[in-house]
From TrEMBL:
Coiled coil: none annotated. This is Aspartate aminotransferase family protein. The keyword Amino-acid biosynthesis applies. InterPro entries: AcOrn/SuccOrn_fam, Aminotrans_3, Aminotrans_3_PPA_site, Class-III_PLP-dep_AT, PyrdxlP-dep_Trfase, PyrdxlP-dep_Trfase_major, PyrdxlP-dep_Trfase_small. Keywords: Amino-acid biosynthesis, Aminotransferase, Pyridoxal phosphate, Transferase. GO terms for molecular function: identical protein binding; pyridoxal phosphate binding; transaminase activity. Belongs to the class-III pyridoxal-phosphate-dependent aminotransferase family. Its cofactor is pyridoxal 5'-phosphate. It comes from Candidatus Sysuiplasma superficiale. Pfam families: Aminotran_3 (PF00202). Pathway: Amino-acid biosynthesis. GO terms for biological process: L-arginine biosynthetic process. PROSITE patterns: AA_TRANSFER_CLASS_3.
Length: 400
C-alpha cells in the first residue's frame, strides 16, 4: 500500500514560506486508507485525529473518491449566480434529518464561516444584538465566531475586534444560563459537547432544558455541530440524543464532505423568512465539487447500520480504555459519546502521551492542554482501538 517518497529538503526548509500559526509535527503524510495513514517515508500510523473530526469515512473511501473525481472531471466551480444541482440535493438531504421541520441551508467553506452566518442571521431575524455563549466554548477564529468563543486565550492581541455584547454562562448549568438571558439576547450559541474545550459532556437533560429557557426568553438557540455532527456521536447530530432540544439554527462543517472544505448553516422557517437576497453570500460556498463530496459522505453515513456501528465501536473504545487505564493515577476521567472521547490527565501527562503515541505510530490530539482527544474515522476497527489501548498500557507502565 504505502510508497516511499524522496524528501528533497527538510521539513523546516519546506515551512519557510508559511506563516507560523501552527505548531506542526515534523512529518508529512502521503497516503491513507481507512484509519491508517502513511508518511512520505512509508511509515504507517493509526489515525485517531482524522484531520480533527474531518475524515469521517476514513482516508480514500472509494465512494467519496469516485464522487470527487467524477465531479472534478465535469465541473469544479461555477457560481451561486446560477443553480447548482448538487447544492440543492445536499440541502434537501440535510433538512430531512429534522423531521416535521423545514430547514433552509446556507453553504460556506468552514465551521467558522457557518457560525458567522448563524450569528448574522440571528441578529437579522430577531432585531436584537446580544449573544450568550458558554465558558470554555470554541466556535472559530473569525471576528464574530471568536467573540462568542469562551476561551480568552484565543482573543489575545485581537481585543479591538471582539464584539462586546456577549455574555458567558457556565456550561451545563441552567441557572447560570438563565442569569444571562435578557430581552436584548438574539441567540444563545452552544456545542452539544464541547470539543476544543476538552470533550465536555453536559448533564443529561441540559440541552432540552436550555432549549426551553432560551425560547421562553424570545431568543434563538444556535447549536454548533461543527465537531459533533455527521455521525460522530452515533446520531447524525449530537443534540438529537436529547428529545425536546429544538435548535433554531444548526451549524455543520468538518465531516460534512469527508475532507473537502465545506460549511453549512441550517435555519428554521422563522429565521429563513427574515433572510433575503443579498443579506449574505459566499463565492465558493456550496460549489459543485464540495457538495458532490457532501452527498457521497451522507450516503455512506445514512447507509443501513452505519450509525449503529459508530455507537457499538464507541462503546468498545470506552470500555477498552477504561480497562487499559484502570490504576493509572494520572488519568482523572474518561468521557465522551460515540467516537468522540476525551481522557483527562494530570499535569502534562496528556502531552507526554501524545508524543509517546506518535513515536509508536499512533496519532492523537491534545485539547485544552490536559485532555487526550480521540476523534478517529468512524470506520475505525476494534483491532485499531486495541493498538491504541496497548499503547496506553505501555505508557502507564513506563510512567511507574
Amino acid at each position: 500500500m504505502a510508497q516511499k517518497y524522496k524528501i528533497e529538503q527538510g521539513v523546516k526548509g519546506r515551512q519557510d514560506s508559511l506563516l507560523g500559526v501552527y505548531r506542526r509535527k515534523g512529518v508529512s503524510f502521503a497516503s491513507g486508507k481507512g484509519a491508517r495513514i502513511w508518511d512520505t517515508s512509508g511509515r504507517e500510523y493509526i489515525d485517531f485525529v482524522a484531520g480533527i473530526a474531518v475524515n469521517v469515512l476514513g482516508h480514500s473511501n472509494p465512494k467519496l473518491v469516485s464522487a470527487i473525481c467524477n465531479q472534478a472531471s465535469n465541473l469544479i466551480h461555477t457560481s451561486n449566480l446560477y443553480e447548482i444541482e448538487n447544492q440543492s440535493q445536499l440541502a434537501s438531504r440535510l433538512s430531512r434529518h429534522f423531521p416535521g421541520r423545514k430547514m433552509k441551508v446556507f453553504f460556506s467553506n468552514s465551521g467558522a464561516e457557518a457560525n458567522e452566518a448563524a450569528l448574522k442571521f440571528a441578529v437579522k431575524s430577531t432585531g436584537r444584538g446580544g449573544f450568550v455563549s458558554a465558558n470554555n466554548s470554541f466556535h472559530g477564529r473569525t471576528a464574530m465566531a471568536l467573540s462568542v468563543t469562551g476561551q480568552p486565550k484565543y482573543w489575545s492581541g485581537f481585543e479591538p475586534l471582539i464584539y462586546r455584547n456577549v455574555e458567558f454562562f457556565d456550561y451545563g448549568s441552567i441557572e447560570s444560563l438563565k442569569s444571562h438571558l435578557n430581552r436584548d439576547v438574539a441567540a444563545v450559541i452552544m456545542e452539544p459537547i464541547q470539543g476544543e474545550g476538552g470533550v465536555i459532556v453536559p448533564p443529561k437533560g441540559f440541552l432540552r432544558e436550555a432549549s426551553a429557557v432560551v425560547h421562553d426568553n424570545g431568543s434563538l438557540l444556535i447549536v454548533d455541530e461543527v465537531q459533533t455532527g455527521m455521525g460522530r456521536t452515533g446520531r447524525m447530530f449530537a443534540h438529537q440524543w436529547e428529545q425536546g432540544c429544538t435548535p433554531d439554527i444548526v451549524t455543520v462543517a468538518k465531516g460534512l464532505a469527508g475532507g473537502v472544505p465545506i460549511g453549512a448553516t441550517l435555519v428554521g422557517e422563522d429565521v429563513a423568512s427574515a433572510i433575503h437576497e443579498g443579506d449574505h453570500g459566499s463565492t465558493f460556498g456550496g460549489n459543485p465539487l464540495a457538495t458532490a463530496a457532501g452527498l457521497a459522505t451522507m450516503e455512506v453515513i445514512e447507509s443501513p447500520g452505519f450509525l449503529d456501528r459508530v455507537i457499538s465501536r464507541g462503546q468498545y473504545l470506552f470500555h477498552s480504555l477504561s480497562d487499559s487505564l484502570r490504576g493509572n493515577e494520572s488519568v482523572t476521567e474518561i468521557r465522551g459519546k460515540g467516537l468522540m472521547v476525551g481522557i483527562e490527565m494530570l499535569g502534562d501527562s496528556a502531552k507526554k502521551f501524545a508524543d509517546y503515541a506518535f513515536e509508536r505510530n499512533i496519532l492523537v490530539n491534545v485539547a485544552h492542554d490536559s485532555v487526550v482527544r480521540l476523534l478517529p474515522p468512524l470506520v475505525v476497527t476494534e483491532e485499531e482501538i486495541d493498538s491504541l489501548c496497548a499503547t496506553f498500557r505501555s505508557f502507564s507502565s513506563s510512567a511507574r
